[in-house]
Amino acid sequence: MAAWGERLAGVRGVLLDISGVLYDSGEGGGVPIAGSVEAVARLKRSRLKVRFCTNESQKSRGHLVGLLRHLGYDISEGEVTAPAPAACLILRERGLRPHLLVHDGVRSEFAQVDTSNPNCVVIADAGESFSYQNMNKAFQVLMELENPVLISLGRGRYYKETSGLMLDVGAYTKALEYACGIKAEVVGKPSPEFFKSALQQMGVEAHQAVMIGDDIVGDVGGAQRCGMRALQVRTGKFRIVANLIEMRSYWSRVSL
Amino acid sequence: MAAWGERLAGVRGVLLDISGVLYDSGEGGGVPIAGSVEAVARLKRSRLKVRFCTNESQKSRGHLVGLLRHLGYDISEGEVTAPAPAACLILRERGLRPHLLVHDGVRSEFAQVDTSNPNCVVIADAGESFSYQNMNKAFQVLMELENPVLISLGRGRYYKETSGLMLDVGAYTKALEYACGIKAEVVGKPSPEFFKSALQQMGVEAHQAVMIGDDIVGDVGGAQRCGMRALQVRTGKFRIVANLIEMRSYWSRVSL
Lengths: 256, 256
What we know:
The structure is a homodimer.
Chain A: H1 4-7, E1 13-16, E2 23-24, E3 31-32, H2 36-45, E4 49-53, H3 61-70, E5 80-81, H4 83-94, E6 98-101, E7 120-123, H5 132-144, E8 150-152, E9 158-161, E10 164-167, H6 169-180, E11 185-186, H7 192-202, E12 209-213, H8 216-225, E13 229-232, H9 236-242
Parallel strand pairs in A: 1-4, 1-12, 4-5, 6-7, 7-8, 8-11, 12-13
Antiparallel strand pairs in A: 2-3, 9-10
């Protein structure tokens, strides 16, 4: 394996996943992953540009940033690329009026969107709001459309909370895809458009950027397909899945 | 198209789907589909053997039969092939102890099954019990197993109730399959084993039997793959999907 310096040569910008990389979400706001608060501070002091690239779709950016700042992170709302605002742009561009199958915590991101007489469904990580009734309503809306459009904020299978693994939006998107015989459009990682918008916002080319995440598909694979470099941390869902015994993250090794 | 007499030559037994064919389930027990009570009575008076082959997994056979008898159908519990008892046989044969993600209405079918320290998950049409919490629990049980086994009572996408189309177990099975990266074992139509057990119980060979259902995949395709003939009625989900204007069923045409 090449040395860190060599592998990261020419890097000008760092994209950081949030959940499972900076912190584990959960009751009471979640807990930071050891070393990550300091790592973000160190990155911010470095010559590198930093941006946070998350598939978080249960909370608004404002709520998420407030929570992270409370945990000690140096982060502001303008530094976050998240799927809900990206979806709003798409809805506006295409004249789509969504039925929202989302968590109440992210609803404010859609405040400016016309949701009357829906001609599509937007599904996000709705958590407890993934009741049978809510899923069935979204299903019925789609079945009544001549050209059903389902926009999914991510395709994650699950994420890690402090209490354990939790089903993510991707599982419920699969359910609606199967029931309706359709294919969802994904807004969020690993969609290339999503990574590209994050790079644009950071003002860095793909070959000059590295994505740091815990998801081999959504973070690492997606970023690499866009021409970026990628690092998978051994925290978050990686840790659970690989069933690692040693509690350790890559954070301590990354010195930029 | 060949005449009915010709197409049904040599038929000795009839397998009837229930939901969407005999009746539409729903609030207050559901409503019979016009002509079906009389059609069942006529079949029972004929020289043909009759068996009911359903993927109903929200109600026990006892409950289902009670409901149908109340609506006027000549039907007894011993005439019904349903996935829950078929699943119980499999669980016993393989020493599996299920975590049950099922509707309370069908739980009695599993009364004799050991559910301690689960080593598999059984998923059925749980209806309102498909809460996020219950889905997540089933997901966590599967993720903790070295060899996760998911047994699904059917693979239906949706069914028709009097109030409209309803998400069926297949959608939720897809969600768990995707989240866990596994493939479910299906007990129920269109599984060949399920059709074969119905034929055995009826004492009729596949080439001597006709399946009557409203689902082109679960009923018609599945039966045909087993060497049976099949008729698709234009009621139940067929009607909704094809968006037929004329309210009419094949029942009036089938004279056996």
